[in-house]
Write a structure and sequence with these properties.
This protein is α/β, with parallel strands linked by helices and 236 residues long. The protein has helices at residues 5-9, 32-45, 53-59, 64-74, 82-93, 106-115, 128-137, 161-170, 183-192, 223-235; strands spanning 18-22, 29-30, 101-102, 119-123, 146-148, 175-180, 196-199, 215-217. Helix 7 links the parallel strand 4 and strand 5 (146-148). The relative contact order is 0.18. It binds 2-phosphoglycolic acid and magnesium ion (MG). One of its GO terms (molecular function) is phosphoglycolate phosphatase activity.
Length: 236
């Protein structure tokens, strides 16, 4: 019995190339303890009360200038001192790496994606020097084609320019995905018109159901399977 032609000719389609861009703080690494320690060392210079970890997380997400502005407002530091506060903060931030940990399964997940042929980048509002320092400290730098940081371009997320630059560095066509933890990341993905995966265990400020996203996950180890499914669907 001859098979119908469709069965004879059905060859598996090549999966689409995968380009994945990751936010950093609150997505791949839990860096708030280091940021808090920097903030509190600076606040101590002004004899101001320290920040809790929770408040530190709340202040993160839009980069150092916004973090420092929120911190100064919260502790009512004199406006005339804000530039000096910023300078003291930045001076300490570059090597603030020892309290930071990758989220469970983050490095294994990145290695799995790379083994599956994904090209990956970091797109973070954190400045480049502390970003490079922490990635090196955690032996994660090797996993990324490029890093676009909070001082790499004239604008920061949620302006989509950083995300566009990250995908441009990854090159070519294929399936594009942005993975992040915050409202800022969701808005960046929307403006860049890139599908967004929300990591739910990071530094989001509001309720989960109010963050627009295409997919959500609480365990980074689930990302390779999700992306494999999306890749197959994209291959048709
Ligand atoms: O440094 C911040 O405020 C946020 O950094 P992120 O963009 O990696 O979350
Ligand atoms: Mg983040």
């Amino acid at each position: 019995m001859t098979r119908p032609p469709s069965d004879q000719t059905a060859a598996p389609r090549r999966p689409a190339p995968l380009r994945v861009v990751f936010d950093l703080d609150g997505t791949l690494i839990d860096s708030a303890p280091d940021v808090r320690s920097v903030a509190n060392a600076v606040l101590d210079l002004w004899n101001a009360a320290p920040l809790t970890l929770e408040r530190t997380r709340d202040f993160m997400g839009e980069g150092v200038p916004t973090f420092v502005a929120r911190m100064c407002r919260q502790r009512e530091l004199p406006i005339a001192d804000h530039d000096a506060v910023m300078a003291e903060f930045l001076a300490r931030y570059d090597d603030a790496v020892t309290l930071t940990e990758p989220y469970p399964g983050a490095i294994r997940m990145l290695e799995d994606l790379r083994a599956a042929g994904a090209a990956m980048a970091v797109c973070t509002n954190k400045p480049l020097a502390p970003t490079r320092a922490v990635l090196r400290h955690l032996d994660m730098e090797r996993l990324f084609v490029t890093v676009i940081a909070g001082d790499s371009l004239p604008t920061r997320k949620p302006d989509p320019a950083m995300l566009h630059a990250a995908f441009a560095a990854l090159g070519g066509d294929g399936l594009r995905i942005y993975v992040g933890d915050s409202e800022t990341d969701a808005e960046t993905a929307r403006r860049a018109e890139v599908p967004f995966v929300l990591f739910t265990e990071g530094y989001r400020k509001g309720p989960l159901d109010q963050v627009p996203r295409d997919h959500a996950l609480s365990d980074l180890a689930a990302l390779p399977d999700l992306l494999a499914q999306l890749r197959q669907a994209a291959a048709g």
